[in-house]
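Q: My labmate handed me this sequence with no annotations at all. I'd like to see what the chain might look like in three dimensions before we decide whether it's worth expressing. Could you predict it?
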Amino acid sequence: MTPSSIVLVGVPDSGKTNYIGRLWTALRARKGRLLAPDVPTDIEYVEDTVAHLMQGEFAPRSEKMIGVSRRDFVVPVVRSEDGQDGTLFDLVVPDVSGELWKLAVETFEIPQEWMDQLKQSVGALLFVRVLSEHNVQPLDWINAEKLLKIHEPGKEDAALPTQVVLCELLRFLEHTLRPAGERTRPRVAVVVTAWDQLDRQRRNAGPLAYLQREYPLFAGRLQDMAKLDVRVFGVSVVGGDFDDPVFKDKFLSAGDLQSAGYCVVHDEKKLHTDSDLTSPVAWLIERQQGG
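A: Here is what I predict for the chain of 291 residues:
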């Protein structure tokens, strides 16, 4: 059987690299909802990310130019309950990282090879990072109208608000992801990274409430989807901020990446905290296998 694909999507500095490094350690540990039956042939940059995390550092974001020496990370995964004989799903991480998706939104074009990849995928992880310096805040309606009139691809002073970019990425997924069956919709897990950076009150409100406050246009779009099944997760890959010396010392003293980090999601109208970092990907797969 040809594996079905799940693709990671997000602009630069949205948290994809550190999440995939932490996800790989969870898959390798075989204690979560998903496991990796085999080790990918080219996993060097993922292991480099894990090494950064183990040293108490977040991996620097990729600055690769589009079209230069692609080394996509593809790892087959299965549900733990199905064992190694279960249906394989390919988790596909584009080597071009966030740069391709940023350019796709700015130019309204996407290379054919990645359009083909999206069309072969049954689900996606869409990333947005809390408090990223690259986040562009929404404008008022008057300035937004002016922006849309003068916007030129690649022009720095015409940067699109982050929530507009997210809506465009969601539109790409809406029109390209394929359903796994006649009665299923493609699934998109929106992953809000650096969740631990929020204060207690906003964390307790949950990731959807965070998006409704920070990116109301995007949040409204999520709740008005006919072609996609969407769920929002908040994710912290290590459970704290390495810039905090107290947390960093505690993390390094423990020396255990497997017990670090968590994700949160509303489950049956209640906010649920899960230490299994494979949960967003597992949710994407469950529907495809009748889960």
